[in-house]
Design goal:
With about 850 residues, this protein is of the alpha+beta class. About 55% of the residues lie in helices and about 15% in strands.
């Protein structure tokens, strides 16, 4: 670049020297093409054969044009040569692709944070000795050993050992829990302080965490509707860019006196600056980051589209049993018709039947004792689930006698004379051969995270309803909102469909077979991984633990991801249109265009990955900031910033053309809206940054307005009009700045001003003094630049004074705050000392040394 720029600027370089240097540059360019250009050219050719004009095609067109023009100048011995542009473009393209690849790799690896630590484990052999093996060699029944500080590499049941385990990596639970022999553990939990021996219940390649990784990979690789729409825009945008570049070339080459070399240079700039990286980089990266972020907290989506749908949900529907309530009920009472041995037989049959079900209501029955003689235990020959009603099974006794056993709701059993129980709770009737044999009463409890989850959805502005097949009084005892009771599976599905038809976007959360249809019909279906396979298969999202607080957090995270996508698209559209305009007007060199392109890439990368900053679900989910008053203040700030663009054009006399003025105003409008939107959402903005925001909007508006008034409400017409270092000669500029800035700090802050302490006093004293001094220093510094152009001198003074005001305000406030606060502390200390001395007895006071009394 240095040699090429020097040769292009100095035509008097001797011919042999020029030829020699250009030969070296050509050799270097060919080397770079061999190393970096072939993948680009192959991709461009492959997509061109499919009839698609992509980013690689734009680069290839630019490279071919630069190479053709450079070879022509190289052979002729005069004219501009752009071999360095070829090298720079290839490096920039490779750097952009590398950044994107690294970002995708990082996004994927975040979801597999445990993988490296779970590849090996200690296998305990029959002699009790342990040896290290690869985890994929573990089979069900093998026993592994885990030492303190290590992670469990398999799913299994603890055989020996008792101590604390961290399950944060699996469930997001921030506190360690005690685990004992008989407790189930999953791969990814870590031992804090004990050595455990664990019997594997699944192979080393069929762990819970393996399914999680597979789901994340499928979600990231699946088609994304946002990206499909963006690619559809790209298919129309790329030809537009190519036509603009061709038109730019023909204009500069044939309609001006500059010639085809200048036309080619400007056409290359158009192609480069218009690289729409948001279409191929920012959108996938935002979704990958969201999918990985959700997976870190056990929220697994089946496709990238689920992220977009999660961001758009506006209401929440919960199943009650096993979802809002714990998945294990307590059996409070069991009344049987029979007594003695017959009662024990009924209890054993009930346990046998319910052991074939994974429903939460079945588990308390499955744990009941079975008092059967050896080889006298009956067999379950058929088992049928009746959704919303219960289960029906056939028991075959050793003697060959078959019995029909029904376990379910009282309405389904329909016993003519139900059995009475003194305990209130969830009633289950048991019929044998069509006759009522027993009545059980189960009690349920809300999950520990249920109430916090409901409150979090309320703060997000999302109404919550509970759909349950139970009676209404069961849900009322749990103090649940918006309960719709006694619903069959079809009723749940119909209600969800009615909401969808009404234009709502509900999220259904459930875990049972009776929820599967409703999960499939909802805008987003969320299933608990502990639920039935049918429910999990019908859902878009699976929650791989029982902490429901992850759900409002997932909605908030998805909203941040989609917002980042749309912000990236807006930024890319504005950047491309403005950049192409400048390039077509001949204001951008191709190398500068390439540098701007990589800068836009980095900006989009930052915007796409900032969704990681949303609140963790282990804390309370903050409400979406921004009430009516906050939005109004934001609009005032945006209007003030846009007004600066209008005043700047008035001061400059609308330089250039009407299109240039329109471009400046469009940029100011875009920046003002983006900053205002960010300010509204940043509820915890640091106070110093909030002060700077008010200064940049209203403080600068007052300065520009006063500047315009000092010029007689006319444009600057000489360099003296740009001089701003004299407060006496231009009083309105200084008065306007102080008045508008203080108004903004007093009434337009994001949060109320502190009413106690030293900061408020320091801000309106030292801050104002610092603004005046900073503005003066910035104006004097701008004068030292001795800018000769009216435009550059005006902009230079504006930038210098703005920076000076910001620095002066912050430093002045801090200095006065420290001095004033120190004086107040000394004063309070003296008063306190005097009070202590006055209260102390005279005898004790006289015994102390004189220097102590003086202090």
């Amino acid at each position: 670049m240095i040699f090429g720029l020097a040769l292009n600027l100095h035509e008097e370089v001797p011919g042999p020297v020029r030829f020699f240097v250009h030969s070296l540059m050509l050799l270097a360019a060919l080397l770079v093409i061999a190393l970096l250009g072939l993948p680009l050219l192959r991709t461009a050719w492959r997509e061109a054969r499919r009839g698609r004009l992509t980013i690689e095609a734009l680069f290839a067109l630019t490279l071919c044009g630069a190479m053709g023009a450079s070879l022509q100048g190289y052979v002729r011995g005069h004219g501009s040569v752009y071999f360095e542009v070829i090298s720079v473009l290839l490096v920039v393209y490779t750097l952009a692709k590398t950044i994107g690849a690294q970002a995708r790799k990082r996004a994927l690896s975040e979801a597999q944070v445990w993988a490296g630590q779970l590849e090996q484990c200690r296998l305990v052999d029959a002699n009790g000795e342990s040896r290290t093996i690869d985890t994929d060699q573990v089979m069900p029944g093998d026993v592994i050993e885990v030492h303190p500080g290590e992670m469990v590499a398999v799913d299994g049941v603890i055989c020996t050992g008792m101590g604390l385990m961290s399950e944060a990596a699996v469930s997001g639970e921030p506190f360690a829990v005690v685990r004992r022999p008989g407790d189930r553990v999953q791969a990814g939990v870590a031992s804090y302080d004990a050595t455990f021996r664990i019997e594997a219940t699944a192979s080393g390649i069929n762990r819970h965490i393996d399914h999680l990784f597979e789901a994340v990979d499928r979600a990231i690789d699946s088609p994304l509707s946002l990206q499909v729409r963006a690619e559809r825009i790209g298919r129309a945008f790329f030809p537009f860019v190519a036509l603009t570049a061709i038109g730019t070339f023909f204009y500069w080459a044939f309609l001006t006196e500059h010639g085809w070399e200048v036309g080619l240079l400007h056409a290359m700039s158009v192609l480069l600056v218009a690289c729409p990286c948001a279409l191929g980089l920012a959108i996938p990266l935002a979704v990958w980051s969201a999918v990985s972020r959700l997976a870190e907290r056990g929220v697994i989506v089946r496709s990238g589209d689920a992220v977009e749908r999660l961001a758009r949900v506006d209401s929440v529907l919960f199943d009650k049993t096993g979802t809002l309530t714990e998945d294990r009920f307590a059996l409070r009472d069991l009344v049987t018709v029979a007594t003695g041995a017959e009662r024990a037989e009924v209890i054993g049959w009930l346990s046998l039947v319910e052991s074939h079900s994974s429903h939460p209501l079945a588990r308390p029955f499955a744990d009941l004792p079975r008092h059967f003689e050896t080889h006298a235990e009956p067999r379950v020959t058929s088992f049928l689930v009746v959704p919303g009603c219960g289960v029906e099974a056939t028991l075959l006794e050793p003697e060959g006698v078959a019995h029909r056993v029904q376990i379910g709701t009282p309405a389904w059993i329909a016993a003519p004379r139900p059995l009475a129980s003194s305990v209130e709770g969830h009633r289950i009737d048991i019929a044998i051969d069509g006759n009522l044999a027993a009545t059980a009463v189960l009690v349920e409890r809300l999950r520990g995270s249920a109430q916090a989850t409901l409150k979090a959805f309320h703060r997000l502005g999302m109404p919550v309803e509970v759909l349950t097949g139970d009676a209404a009084d069961h849900a009322q005892r749990l103090n649940l909102p918006g309960v719709r009771a006694c619903l069959l599976p079809g009723d749940k599905r119909e209600y969800v469909e009615s909401l969808v038809r009404a234009g709502q976007r509900p999220m259904m959360v459930g875990d049972g077979i009776n929820d599967a249809a409703a999960l499939a019909a909802a805008h987003v279906g969320v299933a608990l991984a502990s639920g039935t396979d049918l429910a999990v298969g019908s859902a878009d999202v699976t929650l791989y633990h029982d902490d429901l607080r992850a759900l409002p957090w997932a909605v908030q995270t998805s909203r941040e991801a989609v917002r980042a996508v749309y912000c990236s698209l807006m930024f890319a559209a504005t950047y491309n249109l403005v950049g192409m305009t400048f390039a077509a007007c001949g204001l951008l060199h191709p190398v500068l265009a390439a540098v701007l392109m990589i800068g836009s890439n980095l900006t989009l990368l930052f915007a796409s990955t900032r969704i990681r900053n949303v609140v963790d679900h282990c804390r309370d989910v903050e409400p979406t900031p921004g009430n009516g008053g906050t939005v109004l203040r934001a609009l005032l700030h945006a209007s003030a910033l846009f007004g600066q663009g209008v005043l700047l054009l008035l001061l400059l006399g609308s330089p250039g053309s009407s299109f240039t003025a329109f471009t400046v105003l469009a940029l100011y409008a875009f920046v003002s809206m983006v900053l205002a939107q960010r300010w509204v959402r940043w509820a915890a903005i640091p106070h110093g940054l909030d002060m700077c925001f008010g200064m940049l909007t209203f403080g600068n508006l007052g300065m520009f307005l006063g500047w315009w008034a000092d010029n007689g409400f006319a444009a600057v017409h000489c360099l003296a009009c740009c001089s701003c270092g004299d407060p006496a000669g231009r009083p309105w500029m200084w008065l306007g700045m102080l008045a508008f800035a203080n108004f903004a700090m007093l009434a337009l802050g994001r949060r109320p001003l502190p009413t106690t302490g030293d900061h408020r006093f320091a801000m309106f004293t030292g801050g104002n003094l610092g603004m005046v001094l900073g503005m003066f220093v910035g104006g004097v510094a701008a004068e030292q630049l001795q800018l000769q152009s009216l435009t550059s001198a005006t902009l230079g003074h504006a930038v210098g004074m703005t920076l000076g005001m910001l620095a002066g305000m912050l430093f002045g406030t801090r200095i006065v705050e420290e001095i004033y606060g120190g004086l107040r502390r000394v004063h309070r200390s003296r008063i306190l000392t005097r009070e202590i001395v006055d209260r102390e007895p005279e005898a004790n006071r006289d015994d102390r040394p004189a220097d102590v009394l003086s202090r």
